[in-house]
Amino acid sequence: MSTLRRSPLAILLTLAVRPVGALIFGRAAEKFGRKPILMLNIVFFSAFELLSAAAPSLMLFFLLRVLYGVAMGGIWGVASSLAMETIPDRSRGLMSGLFQAGYPFGYLLAAVAYGLLFEQLGWRGMFVIGAAPVLLLPFIYFCVEESPVWQAARQNKESTALLPVLRSHWKLCLYLVVLMAAFNFFSHGTQDLYPVFLKVQHGFEPKTVSIIAVCYNIASIIGGVFFGSLSEKIGRRKAIMIAAMLALPVIPLWAFASGSLALGAGAFLMQFMVQGAWGVIPTWLNELVPANTRAVLPGFVYQLGNLLASVNATLQASIAQHHGHNYGLAMALVAGTVAIVITVLTFFGREGRAIQSAGAGHHQPLSTSR
User: Which residues are in the Major facilitator superfamily (MFS) profile domain (predicted)?
Assistant: First the structure.
């Protein structure tokens, strides 16, 4: 099997094992605490990233990336539960937006590192830089408190068994998996092929594509913080639905305009809305699920949704190929469809803002609130 044929398989398997990581590290965080498991998760995450830089063969590199995928799968759920359970209730919306803003901010840092250092360090050097999160361990150890929710549950010797929760809340779990699949299609469907769209369909120079990418990643950060904060005032569901619906009128400018300025403006507005909706997700998921599953269940459904959405690039490329390599049309179809799906799913969801995260005993998801 050629290297080119192995690469998509490696990416797919890395995505496939992320839910495994979410279960392993999430369950450990329910039993041993959010903080120590997050630190352990970062150690594994960084170690496999660093070892990837020294891989002597493609097959060993492949194995290390799979192990990296397991470690990566645990980060989001454990970190979001620690963050949402530790901060004051009134700040959860804002902090949710800041938490999710780490996603586009990471893209920005990676783009800067690649542009400045790739020629000097090569691909192995990029993986060495990717192990930098291990430097956060002293800060987490000395400055971050353990979740008061987990501490109270431990003192009360409350059950952390997952299967009873899945049995009693299976409808909620299924709903969240479908919701997260739609959300991941929303982000990947508006991001994955956009650089290809700019290069191939519009013939832009790499520098122009990079500038547009930087702009829409900045918009992602701003949008996440804005709608996360807005959700404290108008509710989680309304904030998500507004962001998703406002993405629809942006589609013509984002996908069918001509010229770098117009497309750049469209990309800025689109990612402001897409990541604006995403900015509410960390706190909303943590508020919807029982307190004794917050380290495992949000991360697990998030990673399952991400796995289901991993077909996005292939789907959009296929649509484009059947329409004269019109990537704009392919992206518009996916983005418009999932924006509507997210709006409908969120409308029929539950408003979780009233759930308190400052103590034990809040183990039932909030009843439906319109």
Answer: 1-353
Q: Which domains does the chain have, with CATH numbers?
A: 3-347 (1.20.1250.20)
Give the length of the chain. 370
Tokens 């949000």 found at? 298
Q: What is the pTM of this model?
A: 0.88
Give CA–CA dist 43/133, Å, rounded. 8
pLDDT digits (tens, 9 = 90+) for 224-259: 999 999 999 999 999 999 999 999 999 999 999 999
What whole-number distance in Å separates Cα of residue 185 and Cα of residue 201? 22
Helix (H, G, I), strand (E, B) or coil at 258: coil
Residue 296's nearest CA partner among 49, 78, 52 is: 78
d(CA 58, CA 219): 37
Q: How far apart are CA 370 and CA 111, in angstroms?
A: 42
Burial class (CB within 10 angstroms; exposed 0-12, middle 13-18, buried 19+) of 59: exposed
3-state secondary structure at position 325? coil
Cβ pair 31, 322 in contact under 8 A:
no
